[in-house]
Structure formats: structure tokens, C-alpha cells
Write a structure and sequence with these properties.
Strand content: under 5%
Helix content: over 70%
Number of helices: 19
Radius of gyration: 21 Å
Length: about 450
């Protein structure tokens, strides 16, 4: 295991480009594997169940993103705070951050699980879930929401390992969890009559395994990021700082998800085939997002730690390197996947040409401009690393939530076609890019003049 995971990356020293690559590649692979395993859920259903089962899981995607992915953003508060302390070589505050984060992650996850389960039917009603998918979608969400505490624990724990320079172990844990997920998908789909429940149970088991593995590592590792249960600490003041930094990031993700609920509702109105095709395209988009997201994670670690260490030149080079890599990935993979998009969709929703056609419409709009989303991802992460987590959230409130709500109220009714739904994403991305670029320029100029925000 030690040979496989290698040594942690030196974030504040050594060759920058190779360090960012060494740091980012395991995160990319981990995210890619996660996307592929999630796609495996749909693929298994597509081959072992009917289109209604596929759509039942697919229709929950926007709800899962809102309830789970949004609050996983809270782990960014831990990442930003811990990166600054590690850069300052302040082991005491780093340890307090780790301990407080891990305790809080479980109880926050438990609370979200209870809230999510109670709100299943109202949420499905709100997005106009097709009647033939309602029962299956409710069952999937019921089981999935039971996994939220494990999801939160894993994401907080993995964030701690990554900001400490260890991106290989979270990758290893994802591989093991993913293999369990795929294996159980097949076994349970062969043995259970309710296929939607089968893939949901497999997901629950894999998330629990990932959480257990990351906790074991935190308890056994050495250094400032070790979770020492012999001297446990829970600091309300540190929790407040983590939430102050993390909550705007979570809310930023929530704004995307909330705006997508209205769009998802409109997609649902086109029928089961449109839902299945949209779901398939979303899974493919995750392939590109996994690469860009890794550069966002790297930006937080490299920029945050080097701000703490006072390495101004390395901060600048870290921002440039992460941005260039992310945009390049968006261009190459975006247009590359678009060129074979229909073939990829056919692997996820075989023997359903209507679903494939709907999915490819989404691809044409979003993959041709995915480099803009990749740029936005790194830019927002960089702004957050400087401690200004509320600014990307405020931008998203206007350029994402506000713009998309206005589009759905005034533009979409003029045309009533699915193409106008996807064009809304493109326009929103461009607006976000313009506003965040101006915000970043102001923050960076102030930083170069000696005004770094404390976290």
C-alpha cells in the first residue's frame, strides 16, 4: 500500500507543474472512477431493467445534487482553513480543525439524512416527476439518503487527506468502494425483483466502505492532520469558522441545483425518453467535470497553503497553471467527446434512439462550451482559497439562479423546445465567467499590495 500511494505532494516547494500534476491526477482519476461507477448504475439498469427504472433513478439526479452535493461543499470550509494553517506550520490549529471537522461531518450528515427522507415526496412533486417513475424514484431516494452521513464523513476526511498532499489514498478508497458498488449492482439486480432498490443498496454499501476507510487512515496517520481520539477536541469557534467559509460554497452549489430543479421539471415534461437521455448525457458530462474539478481542488490547496506560507510568486504561478490546465482539458475533452457523443450515449441507454437523440441535444450545447465551465470552476476555487467564499456565491445568485429563473419565466415559454433549456446553461456560464473574472482581478491586486484576507 505504501509503495502504491507514494509520498504526499510538497505543495509549498519543489517543481510547481509536476507537483500540481502529481496532486491532481489521482483526484481526476478518483472523480472519473466515481462518475463511471455512477454511470454503471444507469448502465446496469439499462441492461437488466426497463426504461422506467432508468428514468426513476435519473429523475432524482437534481434532487440528489441539491441535498447531498450542495452540503458536501461544507468540506471546502475545512479545506480552506486547514490549507492556511498548514502553510503557516500551525499544527495546533490544524489538529483542532481536523477533529472538529470530522465530528461535525457525521452529525451534519445525520441531520441532512432526516430532512431529506422527510421531504422526498414534496421534492418529487415539485419537479413534476413522471407518474410512472414516482414510486421507483421515492424508493431510490429513501435508500440513498440513508447514506448521507457516510458521504459527508468521506468527503470531509478525503478533503483533509488531499490538502495534506495525499491524493492517492482517497483514489484507492474510491476504487475499492466503486468495485463493491459495481459488484453489488450486478448481484442484487440478479437476486432482487426491485432493480431500483438494488442499485440504491449497492450505492449505500459503497459509501459506507469509503467512509470507514478514510476514518481508519486519519486515525493511523502521523502529523498535523491526524485525528487523535486519545485527545479529542471539538471547538465551537472552529466549527463556526468552517461553516463561515464552507456554507457559502455549499450555498453556491445549491444555487446551481435549485436553478436546475426548474429546468429538470421542464425536461420531465418531454417524457421518459427525454429524462433517460438527459440522465445519460449528465453522466458523460461528469467525465469532463472530474478533470476540471480536480484542478479546482488543486487550486484551493496550492493557493491556500502558499498564501499561508507567504510564497507570493508561487501563488501566482499556481493560479496560472491550474487555469491553463483546466481550460485546455475543457477544450480537448469537450470537443473530443462531442465527436463521438452518440456512440457513448448508446452504451448507457442501448436500444433507445429517442433517448439518445435527446441526450445528444444536451451534448451539443454544453460540450461545445465546456471550457467556460472549466474556467469558472478554477476561478471560483481560487477566489475561495483567498478566503472570499461569499463572493462566488453572490455571483451565482445573480448569474445562475436569477438568470435561469428569468429565462424559464420569459424566454423558454416563447419557444417551448428542449434546445432553449440547454442554451440557458451556456448563457449563464458566460455571465458567471465575466463577473468572477472582475472579482478575482480586484482580489488579486489587493493581495499583491499586502491585503490577504484572514480565515
Amino acid at each position: 500500500m505504501k509503495r502504491f500511494v507514494g509520498k504526499p505532494v510538497d505543495v509549498t516547494g519543489g517543481p510547481l507543474v509536476s507537483s500540481i500534476l502529481k496532486y491532481s491526477i489521482p483526484v481526476m482519476l478518483g472523480s472519473l472512477i466515481q462518475v463511471l461507477f455512477n454511470a454503471a448504475d444507469i448502465a446496469v439498469l439499462g441492461n437488466m431493467a426497463d426504461g422506467v427504472a432508468v428514468a426513476s433513478v435519473g429523475v432524482t439526479s437534481s434532487i440528489v445534487a441539491l441535498i447531498v452535493n450542495s452540503f458536501v461543499g461544507l468540506s471546502s470550509g475545512c479545506t480552506i482553513l486547514l490549507a492556511r494553517f498548514l502553510g503557516m506550520r500551525d499544527d495546533k490549529q490544524a489538529k483542532d480543525t481536523v477533529s472538529t471537522s470530522m465530528v461535525a461531518s457525521f452529525f451534519i450528515g445525520l441531520l441532512l439524512s432526516i430532512i431529506g427522507i422527510a421531504a422526498i415526496k414534496p421534492m418529487l412533486t415539485m419537479i413534476d416527476c413522471p407518474a410512472d417513475c414516482f414510486e421507483g424514484a421515492s424508493l431510490y431516494l429513501l435508500i440513498y439518503f440513508c447514506a448521507i452521513p457516510a458521504i459527508m464523513v468521506y468527503n470531509f476526511g478525503a478533503a483533509i487527506l488531499r490538502v495534506d498532499g495525499d491524493t492517492a489514498r482517497p483514489l484507492t478508497y474510491l476504487i475499492l468502494s466503486g468495485l463493491l458498488n459495481v459488484g453489488l449492482n450486478v448481484i442484487l439486480c440478479l437476486t432482487l425483483t426491485q432493480k431500483v432498490a438494488a442499485v440504491a443498496i449497492a450505492t449505500l454499501a459503497s459509501q459506507v466502505l469509503g467512509a470507514v476507510l478514510v476514518v481508519i487512515r486519519l486515525l493511523r496517520m502521523e502529523g498535523a492532520c491526524r485525528w487523535d481520539l486519545r485527545h479529542p477536541s471539538f471547538s465551537p469557534s472552529f466549527l463556526g469558522r468552517i461553516l463561515r467559509l464552507g456554507f457559502p460554497v455549499a450555498l453556491n452549489a445549491a444555487l446551481y441545483s435549485i436553478s436546475n430543479l426548474q429546468i429538470q421539471s421542464a425536461i420531465n415534461s418531454f417524457g421518459t425518453e427525454a429524462v433517460a437521455g438527459n440522465t445519460a448525457a449528465l453522466n458523460v458530462e461528469g467525465l469532463v467535470n472530474s478533470f476540471s474539478g480536480a484542478l479546482g481542488v488543486a487550486a484551493v490547496a496550492f493557493v491556500g497553503q502558499n498564501i499561508g506560507a507567504g510564497n507570493r510568486d508561487r501563488v501566482k504561478k499556481s493560479i496560472l497553471t491550474c487555469t491553463i490546465f483546466s481550460v485546455s482539458i475543457g477544450i480537448v475533452l469537450g470537443f473530443g467527446i462531442l465527436s463521438i457523443g452518440e456512440n457513448i450515449l448508446a452504451l448507457i441507454v442501448p436500444d433507445d434512439p429517442t433517448a439518445i437523440a435527446y441526450g445528444y441535444i444536451r451534448m451539443q450545447f454544453l460540450f461545445s462550451t465546456f471550457f467556460v465551465a472549466c474556467y469558472n470552476n478554477v476561478l471560483a476555487s481560487t477566489i475561495q482559497a483567498f478566503g472570499h467564499t461569499g463572493l462566488p456565491m453572490a455571483t451565482s445568485f445573480v448569474t445562475v439562479l436569477g438568470f435561469r429563473v428569468a429565462w424559464m419565466a420569459w424566454v423558454y415559454p416563447l419557444y417551448g423546445i428542449i434546445h432553449s433549456l440547454y442554451f440557458c446553461f451556456v448563457c449563464s456560464w458566460i455571465l458567471t465567467m465575466l463577473v468572477n473574472t472582475v472579482i478575482f482581478a480586484v482580489i488579486y491586486i489587493r493581495y499583491r499590495r499586502g491585503h490577504a484576507r484572514a480565515v
